[in-house]
Design a protein that fits this description.
The structure is a single chain. This protein has helices at about 15-25, 60-75, 140, 160-170, 190-195, 290-310; strands at about 5-10, 30, 50, 60, 80, 85-90, 95-100, 105-110, 115, 135, 150-155, 175-180, 200-205, 205-215, 220-225, 230-235, 240, 245, 280. The chain is α/β, with parallel strands linked by helices. The chain folds into two domains: about 1-115 and about 245-310, FAD/NAD(P)-binding domain, CATH 3.50.50.60; about 120-240, 3-Layer(bba) Sandwich (FAD/NAD(P)-binding domain), CATH 3.50.50. The strands form five sheets. Strands 1, 2, 5, 6, 7, 8 and 19 form a seven-stranded mixed β-sheet that branches. The longest helix has 21 residues, at about 290-310. The structure holds NADP nicotinamide-adenine-dinucleotide phosphate (NAP). NADP nicotinamide-adenine-dinucleotide phosphate (NAP) binds near residues 120, 162, 181, 186 and 243.
Length: about 325
């Protein structure tokens, strides 16, 4: 079985940045970019214009940015495999990584498999319906798009993300409706206050969106009151899911310590996980910031941590 000093699992900003740094440090990394698990490039592949990634004053398309990341990783010699990782064995070193076609031994591993924004199975919200045509799961990424300007926008959720996204969207929307299934927000007190006091935000308590409709883009939503059962059609320019993320850690089968939601735990200020020689970067270990630029930054940290750890172990 082939043995590598470093295997990187994941192909978003964290994985590719780790690969760029590791390849330039002569670690000869192998990177599993996924296949059925989602597009190479991660969440930015499903977004349009990225205007908050530094260095691109005019903005750049998400897929374009990720292709550039990938090319840069390859340019310095990263071996990229278009395969999903089925399982890993972290019980002893060298570790084993099993992809759909390739099995490889790894002295160290960087987990950078990201997180997936949860979506709701609402009529009209699916792929091929209004998904990415007014329905999205990231206000910060997509909210500034022209289709949302001066329109009533609907955010679903009641946590900190839902409040943060609602406040963010007030910059563009004519009005923001926060649709929450209960009569109390889950968000922290200070965040909840922000939504409750904001003149442009209205909270639709005990409510759910039952249907999204429109022509080329979203035009209307059907909002149902879950207590009275009354349903009302409202004009809408967009619907934003803010009901949490699910970190992509199924293949780890509990071999790394995680928090209760499944985010990989790292030693604060580092990318060290609970298993020595295994590092985690990007959204898979970050429930808070979840930005491309922070993911890229932690990918860099993981490569440096792994390089130093390999050197301490005498694996040069
Ligand atoms: P979250 O705290 O898990 O909240 C998810 C919200 O979505 C909840 O209000 C939940 O309703 C609702 N929800 C879940 N499933 C739903 C469904 N099927 N249908 C309708 N509603 C549904 O997630 P989050 O807001 O993304 O926050 C995640 C973590 O990041 C938290 O620890 C949060 O504090 C942190 N965060 C912090 C900040 C900040 O400090 N600036 C910003 C963003 C996130 P229920 O309330 O009824 O369960």
């Amino acid at each position: 079985m082939e043995k590598r000093k470093l295997v990187i699992i994941g192909s978003g900003p964290a994985g590719f940045t780790a690969a760029i740094y590791a390849a330039r440090a002569n670690l000869n990394p192998m990177l599993f970019e996924g296949f059925m698990s989602g597009p190479s490039g991660g969440q930015l592949m499903t977004t349009t214009e990225v205007e908050n990634y530094p260095g691109f004053p005019e903005g750049i398309l998400g897929p374009e940015l990720m292709i550039a990341f990938r090319n840069q990783a390859e340019r310095f010699g990263t071996k990229i495999l278009t395969e999903d990782v089925e399982w890993v064995d972290l019980s002893k070193r060298p570790f084993v990584v099993k992809g759909s076609n390739t099995q490889v031994q790894a002295e160290s591993i960087i987990i950078a498999t990201g997180a997936t924004a949860k979506r709701l199975d609402i009529e009209g919200a699916g792929d091929g319906e209004f998904w990415q045509k007014g329905v999205t799961a990231c206000a910060v990424c997509d909210g500034a798009a022209p289709i949302f300007r001066n329109k009533p926008l609907f955010v679903i959720g009641g946590g900190d993300s839902a409040v943060e996204e609602s406040v963010f969207l007030t910059k563009y929307a004519s009005r923001v409706y926060l649709v929450h299934r209960r009569d109390q927000l889950r968000a922290s007190k200070i965040m909840a206050e922000r939504a409750l006091k904001h003149p442009k935000i209205e909270i639709l308590w005990n409510s759910a969106i039952e249907k999204i409709s429109g022509d080329q883009i979203v035009k209307k939503v059907l909002v149902k009151n879950l207590v009275t059962g009354a349903a009302e059609e409202r004009e809408a320019g967009g619907v934003f899911f803010a009901i949490g993320h699910q970190p992509n850690t199924g293949f780890l089968k509990g071999q790394l310590k995680t928090n209760e939601t499944g985010y990989v735990l790292v030693r604060p200020g580092t990318t060290y996980t609970s298993v020595e020689g295994v590092f985690a970067a990007g959204d898979v270990q970050d429930p808070t910031y979840r930005q491309a630029v922070t993911a890229a930054g932690s990918g860099c940290m993981a490569a440096l941590d792994s390089e130093r750890w390999l050197s301490e172990m005498g694996i040069d």
